[in-house]
Amino acid sequence: MRVKGKLTTATWLDEDTIESIIDRFEKKYRISIDVDVEVDASIIGGIIFTVGDEVFDGSARGRLECMREQLLND
Amino acid sequence: METITWSQLAFHVLNILVIFLICRLLVYKPIMKFLLARQAKVDAMLGAADKTNAEAEKKRREYEDKLEASLEEVSRMMNESTAMAHARASEIVQDAQHEADAIMQRSKREIEEERKHAMHSMREEVTDMAVQLAGKVIKREVTAEDNKKLIDEFFEKVG
C-alpha cells in the first residue's frame, strides 16, 4: 500500500538522512510512502512529516507553538 | 243731711244688678270668648312651634350624625390613603434598591469580564512577543547539530 506523504525541513538535508527518516516511518506504520520533500525555513529547525491526514510535527516552530499554548492556558 | 231710704237702696242695688247682668251679657262673654279663642290659637301656635322645634332638633341630630359619619369616613379614607402611600413609597424604595443592586452586580460582572479580557489580551500579546523573539533567537542560533538533535528527539517521541 502506497501513501502520499510530505516531509518539511528547515534546511536542506542530505539524501541519507531523508531516506533514514522515510524508512523509519515506513517500518513503524508498515506502509510505503511517496514523499515530497519541501524546505521551509519558517519551521526554524527539526521536521514536519505529513502522511495522509496525519501530521507529525517535530519542528522548533511546533515546540514554540506548544509552549505558547501552555503559557496561555496556565 | 239727706237720708237714703230702703226703697232707694233697693233701687240702687237693683240698678247695679241690672248693669252687672247687662255688662256680663254684652261685654264679659264676648271678651271671654275672644280670650278663649286667642288662647286656643296661641296654644295651637305653641304646639306647632314645639312640633317644628322637635323636627328641627331631629334634623339637627340627623345632620350631626351624618356629619360625624362623614368625618369618620374621611378620617378612615385619609388613614387608608396614608397607609397606601407609605406602602407604595416603601415598594418604590425597595424596587429602586433592588435595581441599584442589580446594576451594581452587573457593573461588577462587566468590569470583571473586561479586566479578564484585557488580562487575556495582554497575556496573549506578551506571549506572542516572547515566542516570536524566542523564534528569532533560535533561528539565528540553531546549528546543523541542533537540527539533527531535534530530528532525533522527534523520532524518540514518535517511536
Biggest interface, chains and residues, is: A-B, 22 and 23 residues
Alpha-carbon distance between the two ends of chain B: 196 Å
Report how far apart the termini of chain A are: 43 Å
Specify the number of helices of chain A: 2
Order of helices and strands of chain A: EHEEEH
> What string gives the helices and strands of chain B in order?
HH
Radius of gyration of chain A: 14 Å
Please, what is the average pLDDT of chain B?
A: 92
Uncertain segments of chain B of ≥5 residues (pLDDT<50)? Answer: none
Largest sheet: number of strands, sense, barrel closure of chain A: 4 strands, mixed
Count the DSSP helices of chain B: 2
Task: State the total count of DSSP E strands of chain A.
Answer: 4
Mean pLDDT of chain A: 89
> Low-confidence runs of chain A (pLDDT<50, min 5 residues)?
none
- Mass-distribution shape of chain A: globular
Descriptive overview:
The complex is a heterodimer of chains A (74) and B (159). Chain A has 74 residues and is of the alpha+beta class. Chain A has 2 helices and 4 strands. Chain A has helices spanning 15-29, 60-73; strands at residues 2-9, 32-39, 46-51, 54-59. Chain A is globular. By secondary structure, chain B is mainly alpha-helical. The interface between A and B is medium-sized, with 22 and 23 residues.
Structure characteristics:
heterodimer, A: 74 residues, alpha+beta, 4-stranded mixed sheet, 2 helices, B: 159 residues, mainly alpha, 95% helix, rod-shaped
